Amino acid sequence: MRNATVPVAVLGGGIAGAAACITLAAAGLRPLWIAPLGRGGDKPGEHLAPAAWPLLSKLGSSDLVARSYHRPAGITFSSWGSDHLAERHSMVHLEGPATVLNRMRFEADLADRALNLDVERISAPVAQVSRQDDVWHLQVGDTRLRTFFLLDATGRTAFVARSRASRFRADRLAALVGFLEQDPQAEVVPTRATLVEATASGWWYVTLLADDRLALNHYTDPDLIPFGSSKAQALLDRLSQETRYVGRWIDEAGFRFVTPIKATSAGTTWVAPAAGIGWAAIGDAAAAFDPLSSHGMTTALWTAIAGAEASVAALSGDLRPLAAYATKVATGVQEFLSSQREIYRREQRFLNEPFWKRRHSQHASNTLQDDT
Ligand SMILES: Cc1cc2nc3c(=O)[nH]c(=O)nc-3n(C[C@H](O)[C@H](O)[C@H](O)COP(=O)(O)OP(=O)(O)OC[C@H]3O[C@@H](n4cnc5c(N)ncnc54)[C@H](O)[C@@H]3O)c2cc1C
Fold first, then answer.
1. Are 48 and 209 in contact (CB under 8 A)?
2. How crowded is residue 175: how many other Cβ atoms within 10 Å of its Cβ?
3. H or E element: which one contains 131?
4. Degrees to nearest 5, angle at CA 282 with 365 and 279
5. Which of 195, 227, 305, 330 is the most exposed place for a label (fewest CB within 10 A)?
6. What is d(CA 8, CA 150) in angstroms, rounded to the nearest whole number?
7. What pLDDT was estimated at residue 275?
8. Residue 193's Cα: distance from chain center in Å?
9. Residue whose CA is closest, atom 13 of ligand 1?
10. Comparing C-alpha atoms, which of 286, 38, 251, 248 is closest to residue 151?
11. Quick one: which atom of ligand 1 is closest to the CA of 159?
12. Mean pLDDT estimate for the chain
């Protein structure tokens, strides 16, 4: 591959990168997939919305979610805007129930689907990208590559898109993420319901995985974590002090933390435009949403398919699908911001708390911060 020239390169080894490679290969192109190997361990984000079904079907991959290490989602209980739990069943979705994924295995299976097609993979990060005379030049390890089209699927890094477009941020939401195991002596059979709970400092999400571990996410703003307190300590203190339901569930079912608690960015960011001459951003690189929507993976799939299809058209000289793609992403961002505003407004119990004050005022004025 040293000094090779390829028609299209896909950067990033997540869901968006894999879905784009499948789409390009199906269109008869031989994409180069620059996808560094992951660091192993768990990745947060397991709730796959029913809206993903038709997209997976388009990728010939809807069978992947039926595998035994995933499970259909059932009931969600939420304490949001009220001290009482509201119940919603996943069967209300016409497409079928949502799925609770084993995220790492889902990503690995989708990557295998791509690699079984005519896709070439380099398992190293892109170190440098430049554009001269309508051609992209990439440095990947000691390999130099040239390509005519770049699909940026590097997640929130937006490695290429951040220097080609303006980057915006609506908030600085962060997630404290833990995975728990049940004490083998515990006698409680854990519920398979998902629980969402709003509290003074943010909100909580907890769900049982198919392998019987519990995935726990606490969403808050980074500056609200007490100074001098570790992320793990902040999470444990808040579990016992703030939550009415989540802490009790964990205690009574005998769950305990077995891996370190990690912190990760989870705010709403996007680039505008999401595509330009010779490039398109897909997945979180184009638009990363507050996980309140549980639509990040679905967005990764649709932007990957639409972005890859637009790149095929662009390579044959038709730039209209690329422009239409950028418009569709921009519209999707505005729709998300307005539904997010509405959902946060439904919580009125903590209006004096900084986390909620920010969401009520910031979303009310719809002020966007340029993040460049
Ligand atoms: C805490 C949390 C909970 C979430 N929960 C849900 C949920 O329940 N449901 C849901 O649908 N979504 C959820 N999401 C969102 C979802 O995880 C993302 O939307 C999704 O992972 C986006 O996929 P992606 O492929 O665009 O990006 P990523 O999964 O971030 O993949 C990007 C890839 O690019 C690679 N990369 C980075 N830089 C370079 C480089 N220079 N060169 C080459 N490769 C590079 C990275 O190594 C990575 O493999 C959650 C997100 C968070 C943070």
1. no
2. 20
3. strand 128-132
4. 110
5. 227
6. 6
7. 98
8. 21
9. 45
10. 286
11. 41
12. 92
Question: Residue 2 phi/psi, 5° resolution?
Answer: -55, 130
Burial of 365 (C-beta count, 10 Å sphere; 0-12/13-18/19+): exposed
In angstroms, rounded to a whole number, what is the distance separating the alpha carbons of residues 122 and 120?
A: 7
| Cα angle: 108, vertex 68, 55; to 5 degrees | 55
Distance from residue 19's CA to the centre of ligand 1 (Å) = 13
Pocket of ligand 1 contains residue 46 by CB under 6 Å: yes
What is the per-residue pLDDT across 146-170, written as a single tens digit (0 to 9) for each?
999 999 999 999 999 999 999 999 9
pLDDT score at 2: 66
Residue 177 structure tokens: 């993420």
The DSSP secondary structure of 34-72, one letter per residue, reads: E-PPP--S--S--EE-GGGHHHHHHTT-GGGGGSTTSEE
User: What is the number of other CB atoms lying within 10 angstroms of the CB of residue 361?
Assistant: 10
**At residue 317, does pLDDT exceed 70?**
yes
Q: Phi, psi at residue 47, to the nearest 5°?
A: -90, 105
297 lines ligand 1 (CB under 6 A): yes
Q: Tell whether ligand 1 has an atom less than 6 A from the beta carbon of residue 293.
A: no
Q: Is 101 in the pocket of ligand 1 (CB under 6 A)?
A: no
Residues 80, 85, 90, CA angle at the centre, nearest 5°? 90
Q: What is the pLDDT of residue 364?
A: 42
For the record, the structure tokens of 352 come out as 């004096």
| Angle subtended at Cα 183 by Cα 181 and Cα 187, rounded to the nearest 5 degrees | 120
Q: What b/e sequence results for 333-357 when a residue is b if at least 16 CB atoms lie within 10 Å of its CB, and e otherwise?
A: beebbeebbebbeebeebeeeebbe
At 270-291, the pLDDT tens digits run 999 999 999 999 999 999 999 9
Give the E-state strand segments of 133-268 in sequence order. Answer: 135-140, 143-152, 166-169, 174-182, 194-199, 202-208, 214-220, 255-257, 262-265
